[in-house]
């Protein structure tokens, strides 16, 4: 293969690095959690004004994972009738509209409706982001995954960090509503790509073979396909018929879905309840919001390191081991020495979700095609977030009943399951090669 023919072709037909698409991917990633973490530190204030009640606050805690699960299942179906770029614009529009609606809510019903709309958009964005990376950057999967996951982590950390200060200056409505502007901005690069002819309904574009463990932070060698597989030229923007991939027929797909679920269950339990846990061990309300920001901020380091490690090493299972050990150490500190080093325990908990960027990176590293990436993304996030929706509810019930010890015991069982399914998901096998 000549040097020219081995270079990735962008959807618009040029050989230039797709800068607009890169900007679009990063902007979308910044919007995928704003409606979640901007709300949690302010639930008490909002409840006092519009009367959410304990049940309403619990339901709002369920909405993110429920909508992410629902749209994880529905997005691949819709994608076959629209296209990645069009669906991304619709997702960001919904995210903006929902957050604006929440900012004007005067009763729990409007707050709930706004949350449903905003998180539907973000749920769609969760699913389309990995195949966008696969489509536009097939030879830079790990590098662009680092950028996109870092953006996602920033979009998780910053809203939690500024929620209380903005509330104190301008009120909670501004604090949760102004993120709609960022969602509107994120739609612009994809409108440009649509106008340039980059959208292909059905998501049928084939992004050639990307071997497990061979996609480094820089590039993927064309000659590093797994044993027994044929080498394939990476071509983006093709127009063949859509190939239906059924990831539930592969042990890779099932394991990654369960891996995603156990990770998300733990993560969203703390997204919802960490401020309350922090206050229960003697922190102030402001410190509770800061604790959530710190918990999320640790993920920035993981976003830079984990995709690189997943692309550099064939089997990234050590990431799972480190994550679980740090979670357990944080649990032990909160239970038996909460006042000794509370910020250390929060930081250890923050290392735990390092499995999240691993899950997202494996979606592309364990698939050969854009169709496979889209199918695995939807399936793993649909099943995964369905399991994760139990996290805030069960953990909250245990906090109000047996207490913190009961909640952490439940999460310890979940971590044991994560160790098993993570072992299977990390093995260097490709989805398309293991379909039954």
TrEMBL record:
**This chain belongs to which protein, by name?**
MFS transporter
Q: Name one GO cellular component term.
A: plasma membrane
Question: From start to end residue, where is composition biased (Low complexity)?
Answer: 202-234
Q: Give the transmembrane region(s).
A: 12-30, 50-74, 86-104, 110-129, 141-164, 176-195, 252-271, 291-310, 317-337, 343-363, 375-398, 404-426
Q: Annotated Gene Ontology MF terms?
A: transmembrane transporter activity
Superkingdom of source: Bacteria
Which organism does this record belong to?
A: Dietzia natronolimnaea
Against InterPro entries, the record matches this protein to: MFS (IPR011701), MFS_Cyanate_Porter (IPR052524), MFS_dom (IPR020846), MFS_trans_sf (IPR036259)
Keywords, A to Z?
Answer: Membrane, Transmembrane, Transmembrane helix
Signal peptide annotation? none
Q: Where is the Major facilitator superfamily (MFS) profile domain?
A: 17-434
For the keyword Calcium, the answer is no
Q: PROSITE patterns from the entry?
A: MFS
Which PANTHER family does this entry report, sorted A to Z?
2-NITROIMIDAZOLE TRANSPORTER (PTHR23523:SF2), PTHR23523
Location(s), subcellular: Cell membrane
Q: How does it sit in the membrane?
A: Multi-pass membrane protein
For this protein, the record's SUPFAM superfamilies field holds:
MFS general substrate transporter
Residue ranges, annotated region (Disordered): 201-243
Q: Which Pfam families match?
A: MFS_1
Record keyword Transmembrane present: yes
């Amino acid at each position: 293969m000549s040097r020219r023919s081995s270079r990735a072709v962008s959807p618009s037909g040029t050989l230039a690095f797709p800068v607009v698409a890169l900007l679009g991917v990063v902007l979308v990633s910044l919007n995928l959690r704003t409606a979640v973490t901007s709300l949690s530190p302010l639930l008490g204030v909002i409840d006092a004004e519009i009367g959410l009640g304990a049940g309403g606050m619990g339901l709002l805690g369920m909405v993110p994972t429920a909508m992410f699960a629902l749209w994880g299942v529905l997005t691949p179906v819709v994608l076959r009738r629209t296209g990645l770029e069009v669906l991304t614009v619709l997702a960001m529009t919904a995210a903006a509209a929902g957050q604006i609606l929440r900012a004007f809510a005067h009763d729990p019903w409007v707050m709930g409706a706004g949350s449903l709309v905003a998180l539907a958009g973000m749920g769609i964005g969760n699913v389309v982001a990995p195949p966008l990376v696969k489509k536009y950057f097939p030879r830079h999967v790990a590098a662009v995954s680092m950028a996109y996951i870092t953006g996602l982590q920033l979009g998780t950390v910053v809203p939690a960090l500024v929620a209380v200060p903005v509330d104190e200056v301008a009120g909670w409505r501004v604090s949760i509503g102004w993120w709609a502007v960022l969602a509107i901005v994120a739609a612009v690069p994809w409108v440009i790509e649509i106008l340039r002819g980059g959208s292909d309904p059905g998501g049928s574009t084939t992004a050639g073979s990307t071997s497990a463990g061979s996609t480094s932070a820089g590039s993927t060698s064309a000659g590093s396909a797994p044993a027994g597989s044929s080498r394939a030229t990476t071509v983006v923007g093709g127009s063949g018929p859509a190939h239906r991939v059924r990831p539930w027929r592969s042990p890779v797909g099932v394991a990654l879905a369960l891996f995603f679920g156990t990770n998300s269950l733990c993560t969203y339990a703390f997204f919802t309840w960490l401020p309350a846990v922090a206050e229960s061990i003697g922190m102030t309300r402001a410190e509770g919001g800061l604790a959530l920001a710190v918990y999320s901020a640790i993920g920035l380091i993981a976003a830079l390191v984990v995709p690189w490690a997943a692309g550099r090493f064939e089997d990234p299972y050590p990431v799972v081991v480190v994550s679980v050990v740090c979670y357990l150490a944080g649990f032990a500190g909160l239970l038996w020495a909460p006042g000794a080093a509370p910020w250390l325990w929060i930081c250890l908990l923050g290392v735990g979700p390092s499995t999240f960027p691993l899950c997202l990176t494996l979606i592309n590293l364990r698939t050969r095609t854009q169709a496979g990436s889209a199918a695995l993304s939807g399936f793993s996030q649909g099943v995964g977030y369905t399991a994760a929706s139990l996290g805030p509810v069960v953990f909250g019930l245990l906090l109000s009943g047996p207490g913190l010890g009961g909640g952490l015991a439940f999460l310890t069982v979940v971590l044991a399951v994560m160790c098993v399914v993570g072992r299977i998901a990390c093995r260097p096998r490709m989805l398309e090669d293991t379909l039954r």
